[in-house]
Recover the amino acids of this structure.
């Protein structure tokens, strides 16, 4: 119960933070609409009594005598319709704001936690449950809350009328809906558990759907004729993910159908009871009409209240997933302010070991090295030797399991992660393609330089892109990619140059290039590596490359093998040692003879 109150309290806080004005207006409309049925039922009573002559005197009135009542009933109906329309507008506006607010909370929290979470299937299950229903849950929360509050208020108003008819109708109503309340509450929990149990299947179905509709996999899917194969996998996972929910809905439908029979029987019984009272002249025709309408309306409002409550109970379970995700503690807590980039002097790694979550063995073992300001260091080794993992740890996308990394002699775990990462500019091997303008693609390298056009042109020029981008229909303002009409698609090598330009635009003291020429043609590769001194512009540079001819001029070459440093030295020193670097270099050299 304490947990439920906490969830409801947080939900109300989100409601007020995201849409306080809309919430207040919706509440005011809700209160007014809740009492309109009471006015309508009372007007029906007076109208029937006037036209049947049941009032004092017993004479039938002229039509003009009841026009006021007719007008009042019309105004009541019109007010209810207008307020319903206004309420719908504010409820929709409120749900949109709530959806946007919750989405921002999820995005902000996801961007603030460590990379290791994104490689954990359990994390993705939790994220999927938190974000899966974000498109409609907020609107459902608002709707259910309105149903509950309006249902309760309107039922109390109808109860005020029915109490004059006797205690029996009220007792019948309460006894009638208590089982329905239990059924709906139990059903909500059953459906939630059914959906939770198939989270992994749901994510698998979404993955196969992406393979069939996404741009990136489209080429291989069409070339190898994989459409039918992936469609079968999608269909299997989709149907398996929906089967438990459909079974839960089937059971729920049977129970609710049985309860409907009881409700119909109860209304028939009340109808007989009220008719008997009228025949015995215990109530007037107007009171008979009023009581029957009030009883029927009370059933409707009590049903709305039960539906609203059961909906909120289901949404509470959804919110439990959401808050569970938002309460997930990051593995890299905020630290002290980072050093000014201009003061960078060295990075020291001491006996560092790291194992990926779920891996059987460490990706890096007992790594120790020092990289000083202005030094150009190359990291080489076979696939799986730990080169990219070392880059991720240096950038503090992970924290090591053992050992430590020091920045200017200070343990980086004491520094705020975001502030520390500003020291680095990186081109990852699997770089991102952003479907934005060419200029914005480069500006993404630094949030501080939105209007520095000269820097954008300079970064593009250093990678040989300026002539290409200038020739586009709208120059640097041309959208890249064909996701939008008029967008200009680039070759993979040109996209890689964009990624390098983005890294150069970022004025960070350490530049890391992870296979920066993997998609470049021979001329572009030669231009970049022959001008590496100009491109790095005095920055510390760490570059990874399988093409050892590109690393010969590095100040130091570090050779990784199975997660350990096998060798370290200059090109000449390593060649003279005739170790693993010598073997790799001579094998590559023989391929070009």
């Amino acid at each position: 119960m304490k947990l439920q109150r906490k969830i409801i309290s947080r939900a109300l806080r989100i409601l007020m933070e995201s849409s306080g004005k809309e919430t207040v207006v919706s509440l005011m409309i809700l209160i007014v609409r809740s009492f309109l049925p009471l006015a309508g039922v009372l007007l029906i009573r007076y109208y029937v009594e006037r036209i049947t002559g049941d009032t004092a005197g017993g004479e039938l009135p002229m039509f003009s005598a009841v026009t006021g009542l007719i007008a009042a009933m019309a105004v009541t109906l019109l007010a209810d319709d207008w307020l319903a329309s206004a309420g719908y507008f504010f409820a929709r506006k409120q749900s949109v704001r709530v959806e946007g607010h919750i989405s921002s909370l999820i995005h902000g929290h996801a961007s603030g936690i460590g990379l290791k979470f994104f490689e954990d299937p359990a994390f993705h299950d939790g994220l999927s449950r938190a974000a899966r229903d974000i498109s409609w849950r907020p609107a459902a929360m608002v709707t259910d809350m309105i149903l509950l509050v309006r249902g309760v208020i309107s039922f109390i108003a109808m109860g005020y009328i029915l109490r004059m008819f006797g205690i029996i109708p009220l007792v019948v109503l309460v006894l009638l809906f208590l089982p329905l309340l239990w059924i709906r509450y139990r059903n909500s929990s059953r459906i939630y558990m059914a959906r939770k149990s198939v989270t992994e299947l749901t994510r698998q179905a979404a993955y196969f759907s992406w393979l069939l509709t996404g741009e990136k996999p489209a080429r291989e899917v069409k070339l190898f004729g994989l459409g039918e194969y992936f469609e079968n996998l999608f269909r299997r996972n989709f149907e398996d993910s929906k089967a438990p929910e459909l079974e839960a809905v089937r059971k729920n439908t049977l129970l609710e159908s049985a309860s409907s029979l009881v409700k119909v029987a109860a209304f028939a019984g009340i109808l007989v009871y009220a008719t008997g009272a009228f025949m015995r002249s215990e109530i007037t025709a107007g009171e008979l009409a009023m009581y029957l309408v009030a009883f029927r309306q009370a059933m409707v409002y009590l049903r709305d209240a039960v539906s609203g409550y059961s909906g909120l109970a289901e949404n509470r379970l959804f919110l439990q997933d959401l808050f569970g995700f938002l309460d997930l503690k990051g593995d890299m807590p905020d630290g002290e302010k980072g050093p000014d980039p201009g003061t960078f002097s060295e990075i020291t790694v001491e006996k560092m070991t790291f194992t990926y979550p779920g891996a059987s063995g460490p990706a890096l073992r007992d790594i120790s090295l020092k990289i000083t300001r202005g030094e150009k260091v190359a990291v080489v080794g076979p696939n799986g030797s730990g080169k990219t993992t070392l880059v991720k740890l240096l950038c503090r996308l992970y924290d090591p399991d053992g050992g430590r990394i020091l920045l200017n002699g200070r343990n980086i775990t004491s520094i705020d992660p975001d502030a520390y990462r500003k020291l680095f500019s990186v081109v990852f091997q699997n770089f991102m393609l952003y479907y934005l303008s060419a200029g914005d693609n480069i500006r993404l390298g630094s949030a501080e330089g939105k209007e520095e056009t000269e820097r954008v042109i300079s970064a593009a020029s250093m990678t040989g892109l300026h002539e290409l981008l200038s020739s586009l229909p709208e120059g640097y303002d041309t959208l890249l990619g064909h996701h939008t009409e008029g967008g200009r698609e680039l070759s993979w090598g040109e996209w890689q140059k964009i990624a390098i330009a983005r890294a150069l635009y970022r004025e960070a003291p350490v530049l890391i290039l992870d296979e920066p020429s993997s998609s470049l043609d021979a001329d572009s590769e030669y231009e970049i590596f022959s001008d590496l001194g100009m491109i790095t512009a005095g920055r510390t540079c760490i570059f990874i490359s399988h093409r050892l001819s590109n690393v010969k001029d590095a100040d130091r070459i570090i050779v990784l093998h199975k997660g350990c440093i096998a060798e370290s030295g200059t090109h000449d020193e390593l060649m003279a040692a005739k170790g693993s670097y010598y073997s790799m270099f001579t094998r590559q050299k023989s391929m070009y003879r």
Q: What stands out?
A: The first helix runs from residue 2 to 52. Residues 2-200+250-326 form a domain with the ABC transporter transmembrane region fold fold (CATH 1.20.1560.10). The beta strands are 346-354, 364-372, 376-380, 402-407, 410-411, 424-427, 510-514, 540-544, 556-561, 564-569.
